[in-house]
Amino acid sequence: MPDDPATIATYEQAHRVGHTPPAVLDMQRRHGIADLEIFRADNRLVMLMHVTEAFDPAGIEAESASNPVLIAWHRQMGRCSGRPLPMDETGRKLCGFFASPITTS
Questions:
Q1: Which domain holds residue 33?
Q2: Does the CA dihedral 44-39-61-25 come out positive or negative?
Q3: Is pLDDT above 60 for 46?
């Protein structure tokens, strides 16, 4: 995320309880995201998702590309998130990129 206090404040405000659009939260639940937390240290973000057996990244991608509320949310958050990850050749930032776990419990 850009090292800019206004951008960080915008991002944090959007993720406060009651500020994330219900359509975003509903979509996450429908596609197997049971809980999602975002941690920030300076301008670095880490997202931790707890998923169910129903976790469906392809369904998240499809719905995120077709639902106007989700499209607007991802655009707004995309302006806050900075550069794409280097390993993501599509140029996407956070949305749509799911890393593989390196440990399981």
A1: 5-81
A2: negative
A3: yes
pLDDT tens for residues 51-89?
888 999 889 989 989 999 999 998 888 888 776 666 555
pTM: 0.74
Number of folded domains that form the chain: 1
Residue 69 lies in a domain: yes
Residue 37: count of CB within 10 angstroms of its CB: 10
Dihedrals φ, ψ of 9, to 5°? Answer: -65, -40
Exposure b/e, 41-79, CB count within 10 A at least 16 = b: eeeebeeeeebeeeeeeeebbebbeebeebeebbeebee
